[in-house]
Amino acid sequence: MQPFGDRLHDAVERAGNPCVVGLDPHLALLPDEFAVARDPAASRADRARAMGDFLCGVVEAAAGKVPAVKPQSAFFEVFGADGVAEFERVVAASKDAGLLVIGDVKRGDIGSTAAAYAQAFLRGIEGQDPRTLCDSITVNPYLGSDSVAPIIAECEATGGGMYVLVRTSNPSSAEFQALVTTGLEGAPALLADRVAGAVDHWGRDLVGESGWSSVGAVVGATHPEELARLRRLMPRTPLLLPGYGAQGAGAADIVGGFQGGLHGALVNSSRGILFAGQQAPEKHWKDAAAGAMDAMAAELRAALL
Amino acid sequence: MQPFGDRLHDAVERAGNPCVVGLDPHLALLPDEFAVARDPAASRADRARAMGDFLCGVVEAAAGKVPAVKPQSAFFEVFGADGVAEFERVVAASKDAGLLVIGDVKRGDIGSTAAAYAQAFLRGIEGQDPRTLCDSITVNPYLGSDSVAPIIAECEATGGGMYVLVRTSNPSSAEFQALVTTGLEGAPALLADRVAGAVDHWGRDLVGESGWSSVGAVVGATHPEELARLRRLMPRTPLLLPGYGAQGAGAADIVGGFQGGLHGALVNSSRGILFAGQQAPEKHWKDAAAGAMDAMAAELRAALL
């Protein structure tokens, strides 16, 4: 399998935009057609399946329009094993539709456990349908190098990718991530900048022919002032920028994350696309979602090209 | 439901020791009786079920001996939806056996997503069997206060608990956790100490009649020099100390985490108990595991009382 960094580059090239559709199915916002997902009288399996049906519809709308989707594991896990079965179905549908899948799982644990997570999402077990595996996952860096090493090794072996949380998009993210730190080496630096330095280092051996590594970083698009600096600290690292749309960031805020046209970052929008139909009740929800993807792609192309 | 901090206090009192059995089923180490779990020719459901059968046996051995078990989600997730079904079965078996369940899931995400994780593990959906829910989960603090707030709210509403990663037991944990940080307030402090201060603050409103909060902290028993200091920074916080046994910490290393006899911390051992049979091939694996629990309990009681 080609390395993730290269597959990502090609997928952005093909789609002509750097949009990723976040599959965050807030049950309260699902179109009425899928109301069984929030029906307390329905079985857990039926509820999960209705949620999965909605997301498979979104994936159909996304096919050919955007390079990637990002299913958010938490919303599936609400339905336990039934939800995880739907996660696998939505991942497979996305791959069948030619979309890259970034599993937003934010896992992080000590070595042998991290290896199990890498297997769960990137390698699978013997005989597993490869369509149910993610192309890339999000990872939490708090435990340090030996907690990400098994995931990096799995990326190298399988052509998978990972995005390490560096600076997140939520209001409290500065609480720890923006603390000034002093270490044994170098000048004082924000914690997020130190994590960025580590990410750059971790990803060096996984830079592919496109010039991009398979080890990426999550940087909230809600911090444009930091984005350009973090871009410089991680010159070969593909960025994943959440926060666009519902969380407040616009096209002008994300430009600093890019490097050469459409490349260098993916911009995520979840609610603004999935639930676009709520703002346009005259349209079918799927047409509204497709229209929101087209609008976002056009906005980003205008800002970047 | 009584608050987790109080339920924990009572469970330790009843068991007469502060041991938690980590349910980390490394497939390569399972007794031969459960070899189907590692058989590449077996179906995923059969493999997951064999792993679950082993763990249900461990739970039987643990009933009445220890206050709690800690299933490690990653090893279940290796088997996808089939593994998560087994996670639910093992949790239910543990509750039926009178054991508290700490779901070692190390989740952490922005607000609305963190709320979904809290629902997944602590509240469940309408009609869900409460035996399949955890009493407490482990949580990653990297995203800051607003990422833990929904989980704290869920603990308050349901009597659940959480353990926030403060200082982990793995070799690289110092890389970020032991950086010296300077912030707007107070003297320079290690990142882990600042997280500890936040945990103490987060847990203040959840201190129960026992004097212990439902918001706990994970502190590796492999750092005895830091343990006493972190104990002082979080006087009402129940600690969870991994690293005992296979990771190298002994009974003398954990004393600083306690406060008044057996209370103040749980000490986790995983491999040393689950796979004790490998060191004692003349015994049945379950007798060996039970013997290892008795030995650990005696060691800790001798060090603490």
Q: Pick out the low-confidence regions of chain A.
A: none
Structural class of chain A: alpha/beta
Oligomer: homodimer
Pair with the most extensive interface? Answer: A-B, 67 and 68 residues
Major β-sheet strand ordering of chain A: 1-2-3-4-5-8-9-10
DSSP strand count of chain A = 10
- Main sheet of chain A? 8 strands, parallel, barrel
Give the distance, in angstroms, between the N- and C-terminal Cα atoms of chain A: 30 Å
CATH architectural designation of chain A: Alpha-Beta Barrel
Shape of chain A, please?
globular
Using the coordinates shown, work out and report the CATH topology of chain A. TIM Barrel
In angstroms, what is the radius of gyration of chain A? 19 Å
Helical coverage of chain A, percent range: 40-55%
H/E element sequence of chain A: HEHEHHEHEHEHEEHEHEHEHH
Tally of domains of chain A: 1
Could you tell me the strand content of chain A as a percent range?
A: 15-25%
State the helix count of chain A: 12
User: What is the averaged pLDDT score of chain A?
Assistant: 96
What's the CATH first level of chain A?
Alpha Beta
CATH homologous superfamily placement of chain A: Aldolase class I
